Amino acid sequence: MSVDVEEVRQRLTVGLGVWMDEALELVEDINREKVAALARFDPDDSESTGICY
Asked: Under DSSP, is residue 44 helix (H, G, I), strand (E, B) or coil?
């Protein structure tokens, strides 16, 4: 069985590119959620902070 090294390299490059795109989208989603959470944050509101005194 022979392996076409160039084909394997191309497939890995495409696969890694797709994976990186998905990872970047996930990071962007997480950052949007963090920004939204910070926008809702009110240190004087126990529902916002989750801390009850």
From this structure: coil
Reply yes or no on whether the pLDDT at 40 is more than 70.
yes
Asked if 49 and 43 count as a contact pair (C-beta separation under 8 A), the reply is yes
Contact by Cβ (8 Å): 42, 49: yes
State both tokens at 48.
């916002």
40 Cβ neighbours under 8 A, 6+ residues apart = 48
Domain map of the chain by residue range? 1-30
CA pair distance 23, 35, nearest whole angstrom: 18
Measure the CA–CA gap between 23 and 14, rounded to whole angstroms.
Answer: 14
Give the mean pLDDT of the chain.
85
